[in-house]
Each structure stands twice: as C-alpha cells, then as structure tokens.
Design goal:
The structure is a homodimer. Chain A has two domains: about 160 residues, 3-Layer(aba) Sandwich (Peroxisomal Thiolase, Chain A, domain 1); about 150 residues, Peroxisomal Thiolase, Chain A, domain 1. Chain A contains ten helices and 14 strands. By secondary structure, chain A is an alpha/beta fold. In chain A, strands 1, 2, 3, 4, 5, 6, 8, 9, 10, 11, 13 and 14 form a twelve-stranded mixed β-sheet that branches. In chain A, helix 2 packs across helix 3 and helix 6 packs across helix 7. The two termini of chain A are about 25 Å apart. The first copy, chain A, is globular, with a radius of gyration of 18 Å. At the A-B interface, helix 3, strand 5, helix 4 and helix 10 of A face helix 3, strand 5, helix 4 and helix 10 of B.
Chain lengths: ~325, ~325
C-alpha cells in the first residue's frame, strides 16, 4: 500500500494565500489574498516576516471558509527554517492541536495528504494545512549572508516569499482530495546544492509513476499535472525521465517553480521553496479548479531533504515527492 | 475533536532500540537491542552515527516483528538535526514511503499517533515509527562546539545518544494504541534555552489534562504516566501544575529524562532529546508492557520547539506534548 484512497472525498473548502512583491508581479499576483508591497511585512527580521505570512495564510483560509478558529480541529504545517519555527510559532497563536511535519518543499502535499487522512478517517472535521517560505530567511540559512552579494549560478532557483494553505473538511461539492501517493526518498547522487531541480526530478518521476501505476491511470487522465518547484531544468529532466518510462506529460504539465516568476535576471530556473507550490497551488490552481477551468489535477510537491551540515559533510541530496490527486465533484 | 480514538486498537507489535555507553550504564542498559561501546558507532561524524543508530532501530523493529522490509507500508520519523537529516537519510535506505515529522523531543509520540492513524483507518497494514538523537550532534547544533568545553548550568539536561522505534500493525493481542491526544503549542515565556524542563512542563500538563478530560478518565486509571524528557525539575513543575488542577500523579508518574541516567556529574536534571523517550519507552516501558508488569500507560512525549535563530532573536520557547494511550489487550 503506497497510494492512499480517501473514500469520503474530503474537500479543500477554502484557501488563503499571500506573496511578496517579486512574486506578485508574476502570475499569482491576481490570485493571492494579499500581495505584499514590502517583503518584511512590517517585521524586524525575515524570520518573523515568514512566520507572519504563514499565520496570515492559515487565518485567511479559515476566514475564507467562513469558519471560526474554534471550529478547527488540527493545524498541520512545516517550513524550511531550522526546527520549522515558522510553523511552530504560527501554531502558538492558535488554540487547536499542531502536527509538525517536514518534507522541505514537498510540505504542502504532505500536509494536504495528512489533513485528508484525518478528515476521511473521521478523526477530525476541519483541518488547516499550510506552509510558506521567505527568500531572505532561506538564503541566509542555506546559502550565504545576503550582505555578501554572492553571484548566483545559472542552475539556481529563487526561494519564493509567500505562504499558502487550505481548510480540508467534508463537503458536498468542491475540490476533493481523492488519493495521495506518499513518496519514498530517492537520491541520484547530485551534490550541487544549487541544482535542486536536477536533484528532485527523479523523486518526482518516481512518485508520479507509482501514482499512475497504483491507480491504473494514465497521465492523460489529468487535466493538469502540477509539480512543486523543479524549475525549468528540473521540469525538462522530469519529462525526460517519464518519457523513458513511456509516460508523456508534455502537453499537460506545469511546474509551480517554472511559472511563478517572469524570469528577468536572477531567478534563472524559476522559483523554489515550500512557499512556491503552496502559493501557486492554493491561489492560481485552486482558482481554476473553483471556476471549472480544471477538473482533475495531480499535485506533486517536491522536496530536497538536505541540510547545510549534510552537504558540508559531502553527502548527496536525498529527495522526495508527495502527490495528491484533486478532482472537482 | 482533539483526542483521536483508534477503534481497531492497532498494536505496537515489535520495537527496536539502541543506545550509547553512557545511557546503557543506566536503566535501559538491560533492555535495549544494542548497547554501543563507542558513541561514534564506527562513523566519521556524530551526525552519521546518529543516522546509523536510527537506521538500526528501524531495521531492528522490523526484524523483531519477523517482517521483511517489503512488508512495511510507511516510515514515519523525524529528529532534532536541522532538516531532520537523520530521518531523511535513514528513509533513503528504505524502499517504502517516508512521512517526515517534527515536534522536537515529542516526535516519538507524534510518530506513533500517525502510525496508529494510518493502520486504524485502513490506509496501511504495517508502519514503522522511529526517532533518535545524539548528544554530540545536538550539542554542536544547539549549543556550543564540544571542543570549547563549556560549563553546563545546573538546570540543564543531557541529550540522549540513542534511537528507538516500533512497528504498528493490526494484531489480536499486545500493546494497543487506543487513543492519542495531539497537543497544542504552549509558551509560558521561558527564554532560558538550558531550562527545557521548565519550558515544556506547561505543555505537558495541558495535554495530560485534555486527555483526561476528553476521555473522562482520571490519572489513577493508568498504571503509569510516562513523560518524555522533562527531567527532575520539569517533572516537579508538571506535578505542581497538575496538582493545582486537582490531578495527582505523584504515585504513578515517571519521566524518561529523569530515570535514564544514574546522575553522577554533568547530567544535572537528567536526559533529553528525541532519543530519550524513544529509547526508554521502546525498551524499558515496552518490556514491562509485554511482561504484564504494566497494562495501561499514558505516554506523553514533550518537545521544545525552539531554534538557535529564534532564541537569538529573543523569542521565548514554544513547547508541545503529544500523548498516546497504550493498553495491553
């Protein structure tokens, strides 16, 4: 058993999203609940800004669902910062239980899968799943101090400043989470920490292939296969890896990282970060699902499970991808 | 809904544990599957040693359950290292899907709760839940380089070097996970990162009180209430906090951190770390459950959700505690 089926088809009844100025000049600008004009969000540190965005997204999702906070049963979240502090500090503001998760940039899909599990199994009525990231807090934790002004290599991606989340609950109609394929850890030996797309593509291919095999579906059964943050290069690698296995996603694939920016200069391969798929999926894609422009979506968020310590000790980058199938009902 | 009830009573069918030399000179020495004579476990870094211990514990649990790895459906794990690399790198060795979680030293209880959820809901047949920690990797990540030889303050605890885990599955008899109360984040404003016990005690009290209230039980309904790693001081605070609410756990409470070491010198308040409750619960307590010395246990692992960044930015320490009720059947 690797793919989980949710018989009661729990729905994503509402979402909440927020993104920074750079992000909002791109495709998500017209779809987020709040477009920031200042990426510090009025806070004194980037970490506090990241946390405030995540809190905003979770609160907004609850508000958009026309619910009170007292009606929420669980909060599932994680983020890229060490010890997932954005999620923990967000959870501190809430009175409901907190389930901390971590799968790097695959966190949105893992959180939605667990939320669907809790609701489908009858263990909860309403669960909030959310995540986010911030370019500046990620840069200084994973790479270099911003003040150094390091040149970014062309294979790199730009961490999305933003947060997104949704409320999962039982409902008659809406975007239903019908199945989830939780990924295994795949590592092809990539050690270049700037080349996340290449590192994550094999894990993404593995999960997609497993999902199609388990559910006896073909890629064409989905209006869209939405991957997390492979970027331009990673997306090409994914298509190649799937093509080799006889699966063609050329015509119905988009990658959140690939589409999030109008690439002008430094973003190179596009966006990344837990906030990347969280913002794009919960704003742009969910809007299309709500309006019926899309009806069957496979959302596959991808994560690179490295740390600065593991990289420093010469380890390669283990990666993971979790898939959730979303169908309009 | 805060407490989750598992109607099918999934069982912890086997456990696997390993601990370092310092730990094995204490109570767990006679109960672990492997007692290390060398805390590097033959590895070149402490991080690699931590990962190897976690892999050992997971593998040993599967072996003790007389199962093949191909019969496992999911691996649930997390640890204290940044980006939970011990768990991720352990998962890389396995062919089954990985669910990364994080709740600091409360990870063992969160993992068991999720494992029970997957099995009880019929989403999985056999799930491995495991976690661990290493004194030396935790010290250099959270505190000071070991080489500095910093003096430890008397309110401090000693991170346990060890790992433990179990296999959760449906079975006729054995130690059943009957309910789980996932905690909310509680923060009483403690900022002393050396005083984890004081920081975590309120969260622990909150979860225990909620569990008793939700399940309409009294503390006396349990043979033993086993808390994670409050240490000596934290345990006293917990007892006081519960006493104020009319709950007396004086006669049937032990704390894994309090009992794990024969405190001689530097351990002060006792043990801590994700490995603390993972080792003590899965070896010593589970042995008592198997032999019938204990029949009803409330296992409440506690976690301090801080990071060096949040502490450095002047934040207090948000804490969490997750409880799982275990009953012999």
């Amino acid at each position: 058993m690797r793919t989980i089926y949710f018989k009661s088809n729990p729905k994503i009844i509402a979402t909440g999203t927020i993104a920074g100025p750079k992000e909002c000049s791109g495709v998500v600008g017209n779809f987020v609940d709040k477009a920031l004009s200042d990426d510090t969000f009025g806070e004194s540190t980037y970490e506090k800004a990241e946390c405030k965005m995540l809190t905003f997204a979770a609160r907004k999702a609850i508000e958009n669902a026309a619910l009170e906070e007292s009606e929420i049963d669980f909060f599932i979240s994680g983020d890229l910062l060490n010890q997932i502090i954005s999620a923990s500090f967000t959870a501190r503001d809430f009175d409901f239980p907190f389930l901390g998760v971590y799968s790097a940039c695959a966190t949105m899909a893992e959180s939605y899968a667990l939320a669907a599990l809790l609701v489908d199994g009858g263990y909860a009525n309403r669960v909030v799943a959310a995540t986010g990231s911030h370019f500046s807090s990620a840069e200084r934790q994973y790479r270099y101090p911003l003040e150094l002004g390091c040149t970014r290599p062309p294979q790199s991606q730009w961490t999305v400043t933003g947060a997104g989340g949704g409320v999962v609950a039982k409902a008659e109609h809406g975007a239903a989470i019908t199945a989830a394929t939780l990924g295994r850890v795949v590592d092809y030996g990539i050690t270049d920490v700037n080349n996340m797309g290449a590192a994550m593509a094999p894990a993404c291919a593995d999960t997609i292939l497993r999902h199609l095999q388990d559910t006896d579906k073909s890629a064409r059964d989905f209006d869209l296969i939405v991957t997390g943050d492979l970027g331009v290069l990673g997306s090409r690698l994914l298509k190649d890896l799937l093509w080799e296995k006889g699966v063609d996603i050329q015509s119905n694939h988009i990658d959140c990282g690939e589409i999030v920016y109008n690439v002008i200069e430094d973003e190179f391969q596009g966006g990344s970060g837990a906030g990347c798929s969280a913002v794009v999926f919960n704003s742009y894609i969910m809007d299309k699902l709500r309006r019926g422009g899309l009806n069957r979506v496979l959302f596959v968020a991808t994560g690179a499970l490295l740390s600065t310590v593991s990289s420093g000790q010469g380890e390669s980058i283990p990666c993971i991808a979790h898939a959730v199938a979303i169908e309009n009902m």
